[in-house]
Design a protein that fits this description.
alpha/beta; 5-stranded parallel sheet; 3-stranded antiparallel sheet; 10 helices; 15% strand; binds 2'-deoxycytidine-5'-monophosphate
Length: 233
């Protein structure tokens, strides 16, 4: 049954706008949304809480297998299609901590470990529920949902992505420095692109969208337009 549920994947590097665009597209379609980056961030955090060495592949994979990660939409997020859901990790609200750049860097490090990725595959596929799923990440179209109906690969220049991330962090009350953000972002992209398992790259059948000079609305319209052309009914 789940194999008949349509999936739309949106992959791309950090700060390319995947999260916002995916949430808005999911809201327009009335579909579920999976933020796979939040799962990797949550596992990194759960491992840190348990004082597990982040380079110990088996121990981090065990953490991933037993982590209880939930997405919840609270009253302050309800009605705002672009709002990020709260993330509850092993019973604790980790939303704020997961947004920090340190959580992104830890996620990128553990995401290079094959056993950790393997531990998260079934969990991610479990989000495929009727009437449909929009999934964002790095390998949604290449590894997790290779049969997706529509695959989008989103990019934007490093300067633009760093500027967006800076604005996003400042608006959440998290202090940030533009130059170091850009350096961290480029380092993380480099690692995500060059790892041996599920590297960041467009699926062969992905539609490429460089949104450096596009508004969020225009990017959403482009994805919706592709979906209208692609959908089987
Ligand atoms: O999308 P994000 O910035 O929250 O992702 C954090 C890190 O998690 C990212 O640098 C690489 C990793 N990740 C991954 O390897 N595969 C995914 N599908 C999603 C995220």
């Amino acid at each position: 049954m789940p194999k008949t549920v349509p999936v739309l994947t949106i992959d791309g590097p950090s700060g390319s706008g995947k999260g916002t665009i995916s949430r808005l597209v999911a809201a327009r379609l009335g579909w579920h949304y999976l933020d796979s980056g939040a799962l990797y961030r949550a596992v990194g955090l759960a491992a840190a809480w348990e004082q597990v060495d982040l380079s110990d592949e088996a121990a981090v994979a065990a953490c991933a297998a037993r982590a209880d990660i939930r997405f919840e939409t609270g009253p302050s997020e309800a009605g705002d299609a672009a709002a990020e859901p709260r993330v509850i990790v092993n019973g604790k609200d980790a939303t704020h901590q997961l947004r920090m750049e340190t959580a992104g860097a830890a996620a990128s490090a553990i995401a290079a470990l094959p056993a950790v990725r393997a531990a998260l595959v079934d969990l991610q596929r479990g989000y495929r529920r009727a009437p449909g799923l929009v999934a964002d990440g790095r390998d949604m179209g290449t590894v997790v949902f290779p049969q997706a109906t529509l695959k989008v690969f989103l990019t934007a220049s490093a300067a633009e992505r760093a500027a967006r991330r800076h604005k996003q962090l400042i608006s959440k009350g998290i202090s940030a420095n533009l130059d170091s953000l850009r350096a961290d972002l480029e380092m993380r992209d480099e690692r995500d692109r060059n790892r041996a398992v599920a590297p960041l790259k467009p699926a062969e059948d992905a539609m490429l969208l460089d949104n450096s000079s596009l508004s969020v609305e225009a990017s959403v319209e482009q994805v919706m337009g592709w979906w209208q052309q692609r959908r089987p009914f």
